[in-house]
Amino acid sequence: MSRLNNRAGVALGVLPLLGLLTAACWAAAPEGKPTGFWVDPDTPGARKARVLTERGREPEATLLRRIADQPVAVWLTEENPAPRVARITRQAAADSQVPVFVAYNIPQRDCGHYSAGGAGSDRAYREWVARLAQGLGNRKAVVVLEPDAVPHTVAGCRDRSRDDRLALLNEAVRTLKARPGASVYVDAGNASWIKDTDALAKTLTSAGVTRADGFALNVSNFQTTKATEEYGDKLSKALGGVHYIIDTSRNGNGPPPDTQDEETGAEHWCNPPDRALGTPPTTRTGHPLVDAYLWIKRPGESDGTCRGGPPAGQWWTDYALRLASAATQNLPGQQESATPDGTASPSTQSPSPAAAAPSPAPTASPVTSHAPTSPATESPASP
């Protein structure tokens, strides 16, 4: 089955890749191979969990495996993403899995805010996207395109031509969708940011969303799934029924208070306390417009040097333990664990009493990922 969009953006069927995941990838794979979205076996969280196990600190290792055992998106920011993308897609295909990538390199990325950077010119960006597409080949993958780029354009991106940016995104969609295995979602911010969904829909259309497979919401944010779906449905209606995906990686307790920390002056989006892991990645969303819940933000990586955290993008074991400990969703190591189709099944291991309240955590690991993790961002459309 496949889902195609007509020129008005109306969904006519089922998204090829995520539809296949629901109908086929969750089914038993030959020779006992794992199925579903690709799980990186060597993330900082996985490595730290192994170290803790070796040191006899199994309760903490169990908590970290609630993150390490889940599929998490791979953020692409390097000058040539082709080799890494090719390696991951080949590995995932061999295991009957599908990787999730985040393309995060548009010129003047984040409009000079917390994750400034990106390609040095429009031409460089076009070449970068072409290399990303080359790495994909004909293999299956999900690509989340440029977190914040469209919402920043709606809010007003300083020193950046609106039309030029939208044209680059539109070309990127066209280039990536030329790859038969690619599902592409254009980032649309989060439910607390752009209130004018009609204006956002118009800008997303200029960015090529109706040629893509849909849009992405809540990337690196904390908005609840319920609030995000209400916002996403409204935005989808303005687009004629376009589907979407939701980042549920850290939204288990919803958003933090919209205030600065009085003691430290930290912004509310930066390593906020008392957050929790959200619904594990799945295509079984129970919502006709939501193709998947995904962990797009890499939970456990710091938002920046606030509230005692290491620099943005570095693994922070203490924060990861707190996210995992506070999780109320069905995750590995709890009394119920999530199966690949999103249903609950009995776990073979009940959590240790110590797992509910971990002992003092190890210090932050100096492992840095490729994911720039400003709030990637909250909604710093304001200065």
List keywords for this structure.
two-stranded parallel ribbon, 383 residues, disordered N terminus, 7-stranded parallel beta sheet, 11 helices, single chain, disordered C terminus, alpha/beta
Kindly summarize this structure in a few lines.
With 383 residues, the protein is an alpha/beta fold. The chain has helices spanning 16-25, 44-54, 58-68, 82-94, 122-136, 149-155, 162-177, 197-206, 225-238, 317-326, 353-356; strands at 36-37, 74-76, 97-98, 100-103, 141-145, 182-187, 214-217, 244-247, 290-294, 336-338, 344-346. The protein is 32% helix and 11% strand.
Principal-axes shape call: globular
Q: Which residue ranges are poorly predicted, with pLDDT under 50 across at least 5 consecutive positions?
A: 1-16, 19-34, 333-383
Would you count the extended β strands for me?
Answer: 11
Largest sheet: 7 strands, parallel
Q: Helix and strand succession?
A: HEHHEHEEHEHHEHEHEEHEEH
Helical run tally = 11
As a percent range, the share of strand residues is 5-15%
Query: What's the overall average pLDDT, rounded?
Result: 80
- Distance from N terminus to C terminus (CA atoms, Å) equals 45 Å
